[in-house]
Write a structure and sequence with these properties.
Layout lengths: L1 H59 L2 H11 L16
Length: about 90
């Protein structure tokens, strides 16, 4: 009879331990999922920023802007037809 009570007590302890393990595992899973969602949001934000940076780069490197800067800051002009020399090899 005493052995039965010890066995029942051991089974109750094992069941409680298993239940605590399941609860802990579920809690960890939820924490990891929340972190994953934050990372997905950060990826989306970085993708938007990357697109904006690509647009900005294309605006800064457009031929019209480069020509405008060359004329204004460097005082460069297009040569006239009689100022162009052709070199043959």
């Amino acid at each position: 009879m005493k052995v039965v009570w010890i066995l029942i007590a051991l089974l109750v302890v094992a069941i409680m331990g298993s239940a605590i393990g399941v609860i802990y595992s579920k809690h960890q899973t939820r924490k990891i999922f929340v972190n994953l969602q934050k990372l997905h949001k950060q990826i989306d934000e970085l993708d938007v920023e990357w697109g904006q940076l690509q647009l900005e780069q294309s605006a800064w490197s457009s031929h019209g802007r480069i020509e405008k800067v060359a004329r204004k800051k460097l005082q460069m002009t297009l040569p006239r037809a009689n100022e162009i020399l052709y070199i043959k090899q």
